[in-house]
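Lab meeting tomorrow. Please check the following:
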Amino acid sequence: HYDSCGQNTSSTTDPAPGANSNGSGVAALLEMARVLALSDRTFNASIRFAFWTAGCQGYWGTRWRANLIAVRGWDMVAYMSADMVAYRPPGNPIEIGIKSRWSTPIANEVFLAVMALYEPEVRTCYSLETRGSQTPFFFLDLIAMGVTDTCGFIRDPAYRQADDVVDRPGFDLDGQLTVTTRGLLASAITMIGGIV
């Protein structure tokens, strides 16, 4: 989701800059789209990038799209969510958490295998954080998975706070966000059968 909210998710006045929640997920998708646009490669299927709203109010945008795909019977290989993917406590190693609940095991296994192959030094694990825009897709029996920046529960002290900005300790563009973006892109290409 591209929106952000403060502690009171129904407030229209709570400050919510949302650099990590969820500007970082949007940044990851935009970078993936930029890299693919510059590539001269042809893929076995299309990779579509989508940005939803109302993530803080129950993922309304995601629900709408997931329902549309299910009702119309559109082909979809998998849905991948990047939600809060740029925070790393200073001094800690990079880790990527796969949302273990409300995600499809086969998609999770592809991501784990891709990370083990291309980024073996990165701790990739199952996160205790389960909320994410993959949830509506999962409940409609569509293949879906989501990643976040922690193996435990949310550890970003600026989550839904006025200080969720880029210029702060722990907001890691060059490490956490970059590695997660590479892992998502490699996984997406793997899931659609690779390069023709």
Observations:
- The chain has a mean pLDDT of 92.
